[in-house]
């Protein structure tokens, strides 16, 4: 008699008895196949043949030798058993349905099948687990053997052959196991109590398949197959439902949650299936009670809380009703030490809130439950762990994006989300931005097309308020006492207070849908304040409806005000170093523009600067990922640049399906032109790169380009100036990527930009000049070998080209317009970029302007003579009084009314000086381009010259060489003549070419005798700059100083002569524009003639303390460029840069932070200059206050915290500073700096301990001692601290306390001694007075 229970025990102890001597191990495959075929014939005929001893023992041999059997035979054997099991189940079903039959005769055969199934499945799965561990060692043996279950083909490990499951080794394994559980479902639905004589025997049979299920689920590969797991779970649920398998199933689930991470969500699916379809409510309750009763601690058990958290979250999504039953017990995990459990509970509460809000019947109990859950969510905004706060942001996202809008909870929720935008954790900030975007996209204010423009909302609110006021006047006794008029111009604070007061008086209501009626209906109970007594039903309904609309617009306005409050922080986050934050902020501004939120366009403009974000190879490679791909990781992998391009495409370049092709072209053209309205120079520069990139990727259609040309060349009616300007600006940006935009219709640009329209609007002329520059040489923006292919060869135009006639007319435009200067600058740039002989045209332009000025001077000859009659003394006094005296007011460019001393019109003289200054710079650029071209030709001709050079004659081979020379063709002779001319002009080496060009620049441009035109204007510029007070015209003084600075960049001799004058102007000029320009000029001079600035480097840092913010910002930008590019060596001046970190202007402070962040990556520059920075900030007249010092040092020390070696050296240097100072302020500053350091290494703590003697006498001051106590406390708080460091810190702490006690005691002794000395002096003075009095008495006597 076969006893399943006994056989399972023997199998567990590996004591199973097999009477057969047959073995599948080592036999030929033909014999094994023949044996399996014989078994199949027996079992297929009758499933009860398994009771035959020989047959059963042969099958036991099959199970025993499973690891050594061919995988194909394993699949066949399992298929045989499943088929026989199916036949047996059919026979049992027939017997149970036939009266008078004895079903117990099938009990033994079913037990035998169960026994074999457990042995084979567990054996196969165990082999897989063992083979994974052993595959590495077995793989090295390289023995060839026949394929087996354990070894695949050629190895003994499944992993060695690339497989990880039996299903991959034995074909059809998983399908047969699946068939087995499908058959088991049929069997479990039969009355099995009639098959076995006792319940324990039946339960033993069922328990076999439960254990098999548990074993199979241990393999993660099976959990990915939904059909397989469904059959498995259905079988387990049938056991639960029909055969009292509750506690066994609870035990299995709890064990799986404790030990197997991959089963946490699967167990939630199992419990949900049992709860909904198999009367398993008690199972859900028991599992949830077990989780609620556990105390999780993430410090010691990481898998437990993680698995339980995943189970709860998944179960709350699948069966929220079942989880609600046990929320009273589970809620305690909100105070769990494991942050994973707190995070899971927040997620669970979010899903339960959505479930409750979706109920058809919103009872008071449901509403109160929702409000309680919202209160919990709001409390968790302040959780200590950043992951929990991030999870709260995620919960807000899916709760607010659901069908229920929760209009009364949104204002508070939105305010809390906005507060988390400044969270210290990057992950929290990122999810807060996303939550803010979701709140915006799912807002319930859908009237007026769901647009949120403040102006339109205020107009609507004012209109409704006026209607209510008129109704109140009509029926004052009913309406006026019960309604309060709301001003359409309410401030956000006032609306906030109204919202709060209304929320207290109103009932909470859950809303479904986003339509206006739903949003207004959410405020339905507000109407109870309105007394409609005495009104007709129609009037009462109208008044009620108006009140609803009034509240709707008030709430909408408050919502917009909240969004505007968040925008400044979001603008800052666009500059974050974290890619995720930047991309989420971009998504918000894109959504805000779609909803017409005021101020969102500023974010779109700021986004354009992100086009300069460097993109790594991974980003560029992944940029082609489909935009519809899901997942935050794939979105971030695409890169910020790709996201930016997608955003602009979405907003401005995506056609609308509702419009025709022509309408879409006009719409896209308007969008592109609108991007230029009010844009700054920096924004236009970034926009140019963005448009160029879009054009290179062919994302802008030719129809749009044609439409832009038509707007630019429109002449039928008067076109707004901004429209034509915007069109030419965008065309110029597109031309950077496609040169044909200029070449295809160059007459258009000559007719419009350099014609009458350009003279009418000089801004159009300026941008036309810029687009014409694309006709010249262009440089590739691509790195590497592809750059040479993209570069366009420089093609100069002849001087008779009509382009230069138009440019000359622009430059000689007599109209007094400040726009002339930028237009003239671009016109000169175009001349030098395109002209074959630009200097000839420049000379003609300068001479014409000089003749105009000279003619005016001749007309003023009498005044000039009178001026020259002044005495030398008067001139000297005027120079002392008026030098560098420039008006601060930046008036318009109109010249002031002529005075008696004025010799020329300041406007004409300003134009002349501007032209010669810019021509000087362009001459430098021209010389550099000539030098580069000569060197290029030299390098290109060198290989040809070597190839053409004849071999040197040997001995008497001169005639032979001469003969060869005669054979040289005529073309080669001409090329040699050209090379000889080039060598005569530029020398034979690149160095000689550079020397010749440098000599021309140094000695010819400004010091030529008769050939140099610029040399005539050098003395004039110096004279004007020395007498700025006399030339009291803002434009003249600004352009004169700028021109002088440009001249100084040409020649080192001229620069050295006039550098003192420039430095004096920097200190004394009243105009901030002049000071800013000189600061830029000093940076250029530093690049050109570094040796001249070396002795005067302190003047570069002086403007950092200028009273004008623009001057400070400009100087900081110049110094950032010079220092980061190694053009200026820092010699103790970084302290001045560090002071900018505390500047009142946030732009200056942000720029200073960026500077130090970049500097920290260059050869430990911050660390090397830290002592000088501390001295500059803490000592002398330039010292900052202690609060500012603390903030600056805290920022700078972040750059050295991660390097133990630097920390050790800083500790030693700071300890030495204690010896050299007695100033209490410096002692506090040094101690504060030491407290900022992390003492993670043994050597740093050792140096702190060894340096105690340097500062032990300073510990009497409380602030100093407090900082050292903080060092000890911070060291104690470090986790995983080494024992050596802990021992050293204990020793340091004890010595620190002793030193403190001695220092305080010495101070007390000193104070007592001083007091005793004072008393002694007082006693001596009293004795002396008494003695004098006695002497006086004696004299009287």
Basic shape: elongated
Radius of gyration: 45 Å
Kindly, what is the distance between the CA atoms of the first and last residues, rounded to a whole number of angstroms? 147 Å
Could you tell me the strand content as a percent range? under 5%
Helical content stands at 55-70%
Give the count of helical stretches.
Answer: 66
Q: Average pLDDT value?
A: 78
Overall structural class, as computed from helix and strand content, comes to mainly alpha
Organism: Kickxella alabastrina
Protein name: Condensin complex non-SMC subunit Cnd1
Summarize this entry quickly.
By secondary structure, this protein is an all-alpha fold. The protein contains 66 helices and no strands. It is elongated.
Would you spell out the secondary-structure blueprint of this structure?
Layout: H1 4-12, H2 29-45, H3 53-64, H4 71-97, H5 107-139, H6 166-169, H7 173-188, H8 199-217, H9 220-223, H10 226-242, H11 246-259, H12 264-277, H13 281-292, H14 303-318, H15 320-324, H16 327-330, H17 339-357, H18 364-379, H19 386-400, H20 410-419, H21 426-441, H22 454-474, H23 492-505, H24 516-521, H25 537-573, H26 579-594, H27 600-607, H28 617-622, H29 632-637, H30 640-653, H31 661-674, H32 681-696, H33 702-712, H34 721-735, H35 740-743, H36 746-752, H37 756-760, H38 762-772, H39 786-790, H40 802-811, H41 820-834, H42 838-859, H43 861-868, H44 872-882, H45 906-948, H46 958-966, H47 970-986, H48 990-1004, H49 1018-1026, H50 1034-1048, H51 1052-1068, H52 1072-1088, H53 1090-1094, H54 1098-1101, H55 1109-1124, H56 1134-1139, H57 1146-1159, H58 1165-1168, H59 1170-1178, H60 1186-1196, H61 1204-1219, H62 1224-1236, H63 1242-1250, H64 1252-1255, H65 1262-1277, H66 1283-1340
